[in-house]
Design brief:
Blueprint lengths: L7 E5 L3 H13 L4 E5 L3 H12 L9 E4 L11 E4 L16 H18 L4 E4 L4 H12 L6 E3 L3 H15 L6 E2 L2 E2 L7 E2 L5 E2 L2 E2 H8 L4 H23 L4 H15 L4 E3 L2 E5 L5 E6 L2 E4 L2 E5 L6 H21 L1
Parallel strand pairs: 1-2, 1-4, 2-3, 4-5, 5-6
Antiparallel strand pairs: 7-10, 8-9, 10-11, 12-15, 13-14, 15-16
Helix pairs in contact: 1-8, 3-4, 5-7, 5-8
This protein binds nicotinamide-adenine-dinucleotide.
Protein backbone atom coordinates (compact mmCIF):
# COMPACT_ATOMS: atom_id res chain seq x y z
CA UNK A 1 0.00 0.00 0.00
CA UNK A 2 1.21 3.50 -0.74
CA UNK A 3 2.69 5.02 2.39
CA UNK A 4 1.85 8.68 2.37
CA UNK A 5 4.41 10.74 4.24
CA UNK A 6 2.29 13.78 3.68
CA UNK A 7 -1.25 14.78 2.94
CA UNK A 8 -0.04 17.40 0.49
CA UNK A 9 -2.29 17.82 -2.55
CA UNK A 10 -1.07 19.84 -5.53
CA UNK A 11 -3.66 21.25 -7.92
CA UNK A 12 -2.39 22.13 -11.40
CA UNK A 13 -4.68 24.66 -13.04
CA UNK A 14 -6.22 27.33 -10.81
CA UNK A 15 -9.19 28.14 -13.03
CA UNK A 16 -12.85 27.34 -12.45
CA UNK A 17 -12.33 23.62 -11.76
CA UNK A 18 -9.01 23.91 -9.89
CA UNK A 19 -10.14 26.71 -7.58
CA UNK A 20 -13.54 25.10 -6.97
CA UNK A 21 -11.77 21.88 -6.06
CA UNK A 22 -9.34 23.72 -3.75
CA UNK A 23 -12.33 25.28 -1.96
CA UNK A 24 -14.12 21.93 -1.53
CA UNK A 25 -10.91 20.20 -0.45
CA UNK A 26 -10.17 22.89 2.16
CA UNK A 27 -13.65 22.41 3.68
CA UNK A 28 -13.21 18.64 3.77
CA UNK A 29 -10.31 18.68 6.24
CA UNK A 30 -8.55 15.76 4.54
CA UNK A 31 -5.47 17.59 3.20
CA UNK A 32 -2.81 19.20 5.37
CA UNK A 33 -1.39 21.29 2.51
CA UNK A 34 -2.98 22.49 -0.73
CA UNK A 35 -0.67 23.96 -3.37
CA UNK A 36 -1.98 25.72 -6.46
CA UNK A 37 0.06 25.84 -9.68
CA UNK A 38 -0.89 27.66 -12.88
CA UNK A 39 0.98 29.03 -15.91
CA UNK A 40 -0.79 32.21 -14.90
CA UNK A 41 1.21 32.55 -11.67
CA UNK A 42 -0.79 35.59 -10.51
CA UNK A 43 -4.03 33.61 -10.78
CA UNK A 44 -2.59 30.84 -8.59
CA UNK A 45 -1.33 33.40 -6.05
CA UNK A 46 -4.66 35.23 -5.98
CA UNK A 47 -6.70 32.06 -5.53
CA UNK A 48 -4.39 30.80 -2.75
CA UNK A 49 -4.57 34.11 -0.90
CA UNK A 50 -8.34 34.35 -1.26
CA UNK A 51 -8.78 30.77 0.02
CA UNK A 52 -6.32 31.31 2.89
CA UNK A 53 -8.52 34.08 4.26
CA UNK A 54 -11.11 31.46 5.12
CA UNK A 55 -8.64 29.71 7.46
CA UNK A 56 -10.60 30.53 10.65
CA UNK A 57 -13.64 28.77 9.16
CA UNK A 58 -12.29 25.42 7.94
CA UNK A 59 -10.12 22.65 9.45
CA UNK A 60 -6.36 23.37 9.58
CA UNK A 61 -4.75 23.32 6.12
CA UNK A 62 -1.94 25.42 4.60
CA UNK A 63 -2.88 26.86 1.22
CA UNK A 64 -0.27 28.45 -1.04
CA UNK A 65 0.80 28.93 -4.66
CA UNK A 66 4.01 27.54 -6.13
CA UNK A 67 5.63 26.86 -9.49
CA UNK A 68 6.20 23.61 -11.36
CA UNK A 69 8.02 21.29 -11.07
CA UNK A 70 9.24 22.14 -7.52
CA UNK A 71 5.65 22.24 -6.30
CA UNK A 72 5.21 18.51 -6.99
CA UNK A 73 7.89 17.35 -4.54
CA UNK A 74 6.52 15.39 -1.54
CA UNK A 75 2.97 15.59 -2.86
CA UNK A 76 0.82 12.56 -2.09
CA UNK A 77 -1.52 13.42 -4.97
CA UNK A 78 -1.21 15.78 -7.92
CA UNK A 79 -4.57 16.74 -9.41
CA UNK A 80 -4.48 18.00 -12.99
CA UNK A 81 -7.19 20.48 -13.98
CA UNK A 82 -5.01 22.54 -16.33
CA UNK A 83 -5.96 23.14 -19.92
CA UNK A 84 -8.69 24.36 -22.20
CA UNK A 85 -12.32 23.94 -21.24
CA UNK A 86 -15.36 23.68 -23.54
CA UNK A 87 -15.84 27.29 -24.58
CA UNK A 88 -19.34 27.07 -26.05
CA UNK A 89 -22.35 24.77 -25.56
CA UNK A 90 -21.64 23.18 -28.98
CA UNK A 91 -18.03 22.19 -28.32
CA UNK A 92 -17.49 18.57 -27.23
CA UNK A 93 -14.87 17.35 -24.78
CA UNK A 94 -13.16 15.38 -27.56
CA UNK A 95 -12.62 18.66 -29.45
CA UNK A 96 -10.12 19.62 -26.72
CA UNK A 97 -7.84 16.63 -27.28
CA UNK A 98 -5.20 18.18 -29.52
CA UNK A 99 -4.34 21.12 -27.28
CA UNK A 100 -4.88 19.47 -23.88
CA UNK A 101 -2.81 16.38 -24.69
CA UNK A 102 0.27 18.61 -25.05
CA UNK A 103 -0.48 20.39 -21.77
CA UNK A 104 -1.14 17.23 -19.75
CA UNK A 105 1.83 15.34 -21.23
CA UNK A 106 4.14 18.17 -20.17
CA UNK A 107 2.72 18.30 -16.65
CA UNK A 108 2.97 14.54 -16.14
CA UNK A 109 6.60 14.53 -17.36
CA UNK A 110 7.39 17.22 -14.78
CA UNK A 111 5.69 15.22 -12.01
CA UNK A 112 7.61 12.09 -13.00
CA UNK A 113 10.92 13.96 -12.93
CA UNK A 114 10.63 15.11 -9.30
CA UNK A 115 8.06 12.84 -7.64
CA UNK A 116 7.73 9.39 -9.16
CA UNK A 117 5.80 8.20 -6.07
CA UNK A 118 2.86 10.58 -6.47
CA UNK A 119 -0.61 9.50 -7.41
CA UNK A 120 -1.95 11.54 -10.31
CA UNK A 121 -5.63 12.33 -10.70
CA UNK A 122 -6.60 13.88 -14.03
CA UNK A 123 -9.74 15.96 -14.59
CA UNK A 124 -8.73 17.83 -17.76
CA UNK A 125 -10.85 16.82 -20.75
CA UNK A 126 -11.14 14.61 -22.63
CA UNK A 127 -10.29 12.95 -19.34
CA UNK A 128 -10.33 9.29 -20.43
CA UNK A 129 -7.94 9.71 -23.36
CA UNK A 130 -5.66 12.05 -21.43
CA UNK A 131 -5.44 9.57 -18.54
CA UNK A 132 -4.60 6.85 -21.08
CA UNK A 133 -1.85 8.96 -22.69
CA UNK A 134 -0.42 9.93 -19.29
CA UNK A 135 -0.07 6.29 -18.29
CA UNK A 136 1.57 5.32 -21.59
CA UNK A 137 4.06 8.20 -21.24
CA UNK A 138 5.04 7.33 -17.66
CA UNK A 139 4.66 3.57 -17.83
CA UNK A 140 3.54 3.72 -14.18
CA UNK A 141 1.70 0.86 -12.57
CA UNK A 142 -1.94 0.60 -13.52
CA UNK A 143 -4.03 2.62 -11.10
CA UNK A 144 -1.37 5.17 -10.10
CA UNK A 145 -2.72 7.54 -12.75
CA UNK A 146 -6.48 7.74 -12.76
CA UNK A 147 -9.06 10.04 -14.26
CA UNK A 148 -12.19 11.52 -12.72
CA UNK A 149 -14.10 9.47 -15.31
CA UNK A 150 -17.85 9.38 -14.89
CA UNK A 151 -17.86 10.01 -11.12
CA UNK A 152 -19.56 13.37 -11.69
CA UNK A 153 -21.94 11.92 -14.32
CA UNK A 154 -22.92 9.12 -11.91
CA UNK A 155 -23.62 11.75 -9.23
CA UNK A 156 -25.82 13.66 -11.68
CA UNK A 157 -27.61 10.43 -12.51
CA UNK A 158 -28.21 9.61 -8.84
CA UNK A 159 -29.53 13.11 -8.21
CA UNK A 160 -31.94 12.94 -11.16
CA UNK A 161 -33.20 9.50 -10.06
CA UNK A 162 -33.55 10.79 -6.51
CA UNK A 163 -35.60 13.76 -7.70
CA UNK A 164 -37.76 11.46 -9.80
CA UNK A 165 -38.39 8.87 -7.06
CA UNK A 166 -38.55 11.31 -4.13
CA UNK A 167 -35.82 9.34 -2.33
CA UNK A 168 -32.49 10.57 -0.94
CA UNK A 169 -29.66 10.30 -3.51
CA UNK A 170 -27.70 8.53 -0.77
CA UNK A 171 -30.17 5.62 -1.09
CA UNK A 172 -29.68 5.36 -4.82
CA UNK A 173 -26.80 3.35 -6.26
CA UNK A 174 -26.43 4.01 -9.96
CA UNK A 175 -23.59 4.37 -12.44
CA UNK A 176 -22.92 6.08 -15.73
CA UNK A 177 -20.22 4.13 -17.56
CA UNK A 178 -17.91 4.57 -20.56
CA UNK A 179 -16.56 7.84 -21.93
CA UNK A 180 -16.96 10.96 -19.79
CA UNK A 181 -18.68 12.49 -22.78
CA UNK A 182 -21.32 12.05 -25.42
CA UNK A 183 -21.14 8.23 -25.70
CA UNK A 184 -21.53 7.57 -21.97
CA UNK A 185 -24.46 5.36 -21.01
CA UNK A 186 -26.55 4.43 -17.97
CA UNK A 187 -25.98 0.95 -16.55
CA UNK A 188 -29.68 0.43 -15.77
CA UNK A 189 -29.10 -3.19 -14.82
CA UNK A 190 -26.98 -2.03 -11.85
CA UNK A 191 -29.39 0.63 -10.49
CA UNK A 192 -30.61 0.00 -6.92
CA UNK A 193 -33.12 2.12 -5.00
CA UNK A 194 -33.22 1.62 -1.25
CA UNK A 195 -31.40 -1.69 -1.69
CA UNK A 196 -33.88 -3.03 -4.29
CA UNK A 197 -33.01 -3.52 -7.95
CA UNK A 198 -34.69 -0.68 -9.87
CA UNK A 199 -37.23 -2.97 -11.60
CA UNK A 200 -38.31 -4.44 -8.24
CA UNK A 201 -38.57 -0.97 -6.72
CA UNK A 202 -40.70 0.24 -9.67
CA UNK A 203 -43.06 -2.73 -9.40
CA UNK A 204 -43.66 -1.85 -5.72
CA UNK A 205 -43.83 1.92 -6.23
CA UNK A 206 -46.00 2.08 -9.39
CA UNK A 207 -46.18 5.87 -9.31
CA UNK A 208 -45.03 6.22 -12.90
CA UNK A 209 -44.27 4.43 -16.11
CA UNK A 210 -40.56 4.62 -15.51
CA UNK A 211 -39.46 2.72 -18.61
CA UNK A 212 -40.58 5.70 -20.71
CA UNK A 213 -38.68 8.17 -18.53
CA UNK A 214 -35.33 6.38 -18.81
CA UNK A 215 -34.10 7.83 -22.12
CA UNK A 216 -34.99 11.35 -20.93
CA UNK A 217 -33.04 10.95 -17.70
CA UNK A 218 -29.97 9.65 -19.53
CA UNK A 219 -30.17 12.53 -22.00
CA UNK A 220 -30.35 14.99 -19.10
CA UNK A 221 -27.16 13.49 -17.65
CA UNK A 222 -25.38 13.60 -21.02
CA UNK A 223 -26.39 17.21 -21.66
CA UNK A 224 -25.71 18.48 -18.12
CA UNK A 225 -22.33 20.04 -18.85
CA UNK A 226 -23.64 21.65 -22.06
CA UNK A 227 -26.56 23.18 -20.15
CA UNK A 228 -24.39 24.51 -17.32
CA UNK A 229 -21.80 25.92 -19.75
CA UNK A 230 -24.67 27.57 -21.65
CA UNK A 231 -25.92 29.20 -18.45
CA UNK A 232 -22.69 30.19 -16.66
CA UNK A 233 -19.74 29.49 -18.96
CA UNK A 234 -18.12 26.63 -17.05
CA UNK A 235 -18.85 23.79 -14.65
CA UNK A 236 -17.04 23.76 -11.33
CA UNK A 237 -18.93 22.89 -8.12
CA UNK A 238 -20.11 19.39 -9.05
CA UNK A 239 -16.73 18.29 -10.39
CA UNK A 240 -15.00 19.88 -7.38
CA UNK A 241 -17.05 17.74 -4.99
CA UNK A 242 -16.59 14.63 -7.12
CA UNK A 243 -12.81 15.08 -7.06
CA UNK A 244 -12.81 15.70 -3.32
CA UNK A 245 -14.63 12.39 -2.98
CA UNK A 246 -11.91 10.63 -5.01
CA UNK A 247 -9.03 12.29 -3.14
CA UNK A 248 -10.61 11.41 0.20
CA UNK A 249 -10.85 7.75 -0.85
CA UNK A 250 -7.13 7.77 -1.71
CA UNK A 251 -5.78 9.68 1.31
CA UNK A 252 -7.92 7.71 3.74
CA UNK A 253 -7.61 4.39 1.91
CA UNK A 254 -11.41 4.14 1.95
CA UNK A 255 -11.65 1.52 -0.82
CA UNK A 256 -14.69 3.32 -2.11
CA UNK A 257 -16.31 2.08 -5.33
CA UNK A 258 -16.55 4.78 -7.98
CA UNK A 259 -16.56 5.06 -11.74
CA UNK A 260 -13.11 6.58 -12.31
CA UNK A 261 -11.29 6.39 -15.67
CA UNK A 262 -9.48 3.05 -15.55
CA UNK A 263 -7.16 1.45 -18.11
CA UNK A 264 -8.64 -1.86 -19.22
CA UNK A 265 -6.43 -4.87 -19.86
CA UNK A 266 -8.96 -7.49 -20.89
CA UNK A 267 -11.76 -6.62 -18.48
CA UNK A 268 -15.11 -6.43 -20.27
CA UNK A 269 -13.30 -7.90 -23.30
CA UNK A 270 -11.51 -4.58 -23.89
CA UNK A 271 -7.82 -3.62 -24.05
CA UNK A 272 -5.80 -0.49 -24.79
CA UNK A 273 -8.53 1.86 -23.67
CA UNK A 274 -9.26 3.91 -20.54
CA UNK A 275 -12.82 4.78 -19.54
CA UNK A 276 -15.28 5.08 -16.67
CA UNK A 277 -15.79 1.71 -14.97
CA UNK A 278 -16.66 0.83 -11.33
CA UNK A 279 -13.35 0.61 -9.45
CA UNK A 280 -12.27 0.21 -5.85
CA UNK A 281 -10.33 3.39 -5.03
CA UNK A 282 -7.88 3.40 -2.12
CA UNK A 283 -4.35 4.34 -1.09
CA UNK A 284 -2.80 3.07 -4.34
CA UNK A 285 -5.30 4.85 -6.57
CA UNK A 286 -7.25 2.20 -8.45
CA UNK A 287 -6.99 -0.91 -6.27
CA UNK A 288 -9.33 -3.13 -8.27
CA UNK A 289 -11.45 -2.97 -11.38
CA UNK A 290 -14.90 -4.43 -10.77
CA UNK A 291 -16.22 -6.62 -13.56
CA UNK A 292 -19.93 -5.92 -13.25
CA UNK A 293 -22.39 -8.24 -14.95
CA UNK A 294 -23.80 -5.85 -17.56
CA UNK A 295 -26.69 -6.70 -19.88
CA UNK A 296 -25.80 -7.58 -23.51
CA UNK A 297 -27.06 -4.12 -24.61
CA UNK A 298 -24.89 -2.40 -22.00
CA UNK A 299 -21.86 -4.43 -23.10
CA UNK A 300 -22.48 -3.17 -26.64
CA UNK A 301 -22.72 0.40 -25.42
CA UNK A 302 -19.45 0.01 -23.53
CA UNK A 303 -17.73 -1.40 -26.63
CA UNK A 304 -19.13 1.48 -28.69
CA UNK A 305 -17.84 4.06 -26.22
CA UNK A 306 -14.43 2.33 -26.15
CA UNK A 307 -14.23 2.37 -29.95
CA UNK A 308 -14.93 6.10 -30.08
CA UNK A 309 -12.09 6.76 -27.63
CA UNK A 310 -9.71 4.43 -29.48
CA UNK A 311 -10.49 6.08 -32.82
CA UNK A 312 -9.82 9.54 -31.41
CA UNK A 313 -6.56 8.41 -29.86
CA UNK A 314 -5.50 6.85 -33.19
CA UNK A 315 -6.34 10.11 -35.01
CA UNK A 316 -4.09 11.99 -32.57
CA UNK A 317 -1.26 9.64 -33.58
N1 LIG B 1 -13.53 15.69 -15.54
C1 LIG B 1 -14.59 16.44 -15.31
O1 LIG B 1 -15.62 15.95 -14.79
C2 LIG B 1 -14.54 17.89 -15.69
C3 LIG B 1 -15.59 18.77 -15.33
C4 LIG B 1 -15.47 20.11 -15.70
C5 LIG B 1 -14.36 20.55 -16.42
N2 LIG B 1 -13.38 19.67 -16.75
C6 LIG B 1 -12.20 20.07 -17.52
O2 LIG B 1 -11.26 20.70 -16.65
C7 LIG B 1 -10.39 21.54 -17.43
C8 LIG B 1 -10.29 22.92 -16.78
O3 LIG B 1 -11.54 23.58 -16.88
P1 LIG B 1 -11.74 25.04 -16.24
O4 LIG B 1 -13.16 25.40 -16.42
O5 LIG B 1 -11.12 25.10 -14.89
O6 LIG B 1 -10.83 25.93 -17.23
P2 LIG B 1 -10.18 27.34 -16.88
O7 LIG B 1 -9.81 27.95 -18.20
O8 LIG B 1 -11.02 28.09 -15.94
O9 LIG B 1 -8.83 26.95 -16.10
C9 LIG B 1 -7.80 26.22 -16.70
C10 LIG B 1 -6.50 26.75 -16.12
O10 LIG B 1 -5.42 25.93 -16.61
C11 LIG B 1 -4.28 26.78 -16.70
N3 LIG B 1 -3.25 26.15 -17.50
C12 LIG B 1 -3.21 25.96 -18.84
N4 LIG B 1 -2.08 25.30 -19.19
C13 LIG B 1 -1.40 25.07 -18.04
C14 LIG B 1 -0.17 24.41 -17.74
N5 LIG B 1 0.60 23.88 -18.70
N6 LIG B 1 0.23 24.36 -16.45
C15 LIG B 1 -0.52 24.91 -15.47
N7 LIG B 1 -1.70 25.55 -15.70
C16 LIG B 1 -2.13 25.62 -16.97
C17 LIG B 1 -4.85 28.08 -17.28
O11 LIG B 1 -3.98 29.18 -17.08
C18 LIG B 1 -6.18 28.19 -16.53
O12 LIG B 1 -6.06 29.01 -15.38
C19 LIG B 1 -11.00 21.56 -18.84
O13 LIG B 1 -10.31 20.66 -19.68
C20 LIG B 1 -12.43 21.08 -18.61
O14 LIG B 1 -13.00 20.53 -19.77
C21 LIG B 1 -13.46 18.36 -16.39
Amino acid sequence: MANFKSRKVVIVGAGAVGSGFAFALAQSGIAEEIVLVDVNADLAKGQALDLSHGAPFYPPVAIRADVAPEAYRQAAIVVVTAGKAQASPGQSRLDLLQINSKIVTGIVADIQSVNPDAIVLIATNPVDILTHIARIKTNWLRGRILGSGTVLDSARFRWLLAEHCGISPKNIHASILGEHGDSEFAAWSLVHVGGLPMDDYCSVCRKCDFLHRRPQILEQVRRSAYHIIGYKGSTSFGVAMAMTHIVRAILRNERHVMTVSAPLEGEYGLTDVTLGIPCVVGANGIEEIIQARLSPEEMQELAHSAQILKDRLAQLG
